[in-house]
Specification:
alpha+beta; three-stranded antiparallel beta sheet; 3 helices; 2 domains
Length: about 200
């Protein structure tokens, strides 16, 4: 697992739990504990850091998914994010909840955990051996996340979607849509912290 050294406390921290801060004179890499402490002090608030241990949950196909967590203060809000690691980077399922800075952290975590369980029990896409392609579920609804192929350059990034925790190329997703040729569709974009009913 890739790690970074926190400029403030000197501890080796997983890269996913760090943040880079740039000033006119320096570039700092901070662990979330130190970052949240700086933000809370700037706001004049008390802050008590809470580490969240990884959690393993099963999806609708009984496959296990290991989730890591990161908590971040952002002035007027706080977030908790959960995500899987794929090849030492965030990938697969990703979730987020937003709360007020003074909201109880355990209650916020509970909201996130319940959201994760709700989403993991749904199935939107499956692989068809007959057509050798992805097939959209019988409900004709797809929920997922928009991302990009990490191997492509910053100037020529190819879209990718994550559906049911699976990274699916834009071309493969397009093939799944071809069985609906001639149909209409509605695409609605949500913030990652919002529920997609």
């Amino acid at each position: 697992m890739a790690t970074e050294i926190c400029t403030s406390c000197g501890k080796s921290t997983p890269s996913y739990d760090t943040i880079c801060l740039s000033t006119e004179s320096s570039l700092q890499t901070l662990c979330m504990r130190c970052y949240n402490k700086i933000i809370s002090e700037a706001m004049g608030e008390d802050y008590h850091h809470m580490d969240f241990e990884p959690v393993v949950l099963k999806d609708s196909e009984d496959k296990e998914h290991k989730f890591h967590f990161s908590h971040k203060l952002l002035g007027h809000i706080q977030t908790i994010e959960s995500f899987e690691l794929v090849n030492d980077r965030q990938g697969g399922y990703e979730f987020s909840v937003i709360g007020d800075p003074d909201e109880d952290l355990f209650e916020l975590f509970t909201k996130l955990y319940e959201k994760m369980k709700r989403v993991l029990c749904k199935k939107h896409i499956s692989w068809s051996k007959e057509t050798d392609s992805w097939v959209i579920s019988e409900e004709d609804i797809v929920r997922g996340q928009i991302t990009c192929e990490y191997d492509s350059s910053d100037f020529d990034r190819t879209p990718m979607v994550i559906i049911d925790g699976k990274e699916i190329s834009w071309d493969d997703f397009g093939q799944a849509l071809m069985s609906y040729e001639g149909f209409n569709f509605k695409m609605q974009i949500f913030d990652r912290s919002e529920e997609m009913d």
